Amino acid sequence: MKKAILRRFFCVLILALVISSGVSYYIMSKQILKDNIRHLSNMIYVMDYYININEDFQSQVDDLKRLVSQTDSIRITIISPTGVVYADTETDKVSGMENHLEREEIQAAIRGEIGYSARTSETFGTKMLYVAGMSHTGEGEDYIIRVAIPYTGFQEYMATIFPVLGIGFLVAMIASTIMGLRFTETITSPLQEMSREMTKAGTSQFDFHFKHYKYPELNIISDTTVKLSKSMKEYLERVEKERKIRQEFFSNASHELKTPITAIKGYAELLEQGFVTDEDTKKKFIRRIRKSADNMTVLINDILMISQLETKEANVTFSMVRMAPLVEEILESVEPLADSYQVALHSECEPITIEASTKQLRELLVNLISNGIKYNHPEGNVWIQVSRNTTDLLIKITDDGMGIPTEDQSRIFERFYRVDKGRSRTLGGTGLGLSIVKHIIEFYEGTINLESKLGQGSCFTITIPMERKPEEIERNKANS
Ligand code: ADP
């Protein structure tokens, strides 16, 4: 990366130097040419004033050359408007010179302009700048005065400019190398630091600490890494928590299964040993074996249901459920239980239809109503109220039973949590009923609220949104 940045630095520098030198060369060449033309045209005006048409041109131009330059570097020529050379400081035999009419500067002079041309002289073979202007004598005959000087343009200054340019270039190179190195350092060293920090922290820790860097882009990287590491940490913690919960669930479930299995085994062994001869006792033992097997079935069904709800794999079939007939049917099914506990059931149900799973709604109602019956006393009551508001279905299950102690109220929805373990077991409870209820309500994104007073009774209030969200419908379609 360092090398790549430096290479690009140099490329940009060289490009900048080449472009600026090129542009300067072009502008300065133009300026030098312009200055020389101005200078020579001024000279032509003065000469025009000096030259007398009635005297010998050749001697006049020779005099003029001596006057303006001691170094022989100037050439003065007098030419007729037809291109015939009258006099020239560089030759005595003008008659032998070719016609100059086609020369660029002469053509311009004939047009009345100050003409110029920079080209290699046929006479000297060196590069010259020619400037020509027409003299209007006012005495009948015009002539052209042409002045030429050796001219190499900007090249003349090259020798002096080159060393300065070279030094400038060298200084720029050194400065850009230092700057480039420093710049790459400011980028690469934070990156190296970050990578060191990440390796130091290890893969399982995700506890990174980065400095605040000069460039915001680097801070974005470090901030994102910190954020990512935090969410990774949270994710791992969540996975670990879920693992613990699952483990706890399995150990609880096996513990719960042990009770009926031990009972079945115990009664079966007693019967096998043949010590029980009394027919009534035999029947009692067999009834207990069957009861324990029933308890196991209920427990296994509850475990299956809860694990399906948790993994969202429940095979849910949605339909338009009419609440009143459903409540009626449930009341009929729990009537024997209510009779055995001498608890009266009361229901009040508005004619409501909701798009939901009948199986889940039945499970929810049966669990809450049978709890109201089981944790009650003879002559107790359970009230079932089904109504709706603008958005939600409202279900209220109230009982005047034993109530739930305040400290247990927040925990009764936990799996296998029972207020009175012994009582719940004897009543055939699994400790999973309310946990299933809570999962079903979560499935519908509803709420459950509990109000209870020990010795006075409990009231569970449930809300379930009437409108299903599109993604929920999609999910259910996929499941069914
Ligand atoms: P269980 O199978 O034991 O009934 P639940 O999850 O349905 O399991 O209930 C958990 C515990 O909450 C019960 O063991 C009981 O102690 C208490 N509970 C639930 N509903 C009521 C209620 N209506 N009145 C009093 N206690 C209740």
Would you give an account of this structure?
With 480 residues, this protein is of the alpha+beta class. It has 3 domains: 2-157, Beta-Lactamase, CATH 3.30.450.20; 216-295, Helix Hairpins (Orthogonal Bundle); 316-479, 2-Layer Sandwich (Heat Shock Protein 90), CATH 3.30.565. Helix content is 57%, strand content 17%. The protein contains 12 helices and 12 strands. The chain has helices at residues 2-50, 57-68, 104-110, 155-205, 216-273, 279-310, 323-340, 358-374, 406-409, 421-426, 433-443, 470-479, and strands at 75-79, 85-88, 115-120, 127-135, 143-150, 319-322, 343-349, 353-356, 380-388, 392-399, 447-453, 457-465. The strands form 3 sheets. The protein has a 5-stranded antiparallel β-sheet with strand order 2-1-5-4-3, with helices on both faces. Strands 7-9-10-12-11 form a 5-stranded mixed β-sheet, covered by helices on one side. A hairpin with a 7-residue loop joins strand 4 and strand 5. The longest helix is centred in the middle third of the chain and has 58 residues, at 216-273. It is rod-shaped. The model has no long low-confidence stretch (mean pLDDT 87). The site of adenosine-5'-diphosphate has 23 residues, from helix 8 and helix 11.
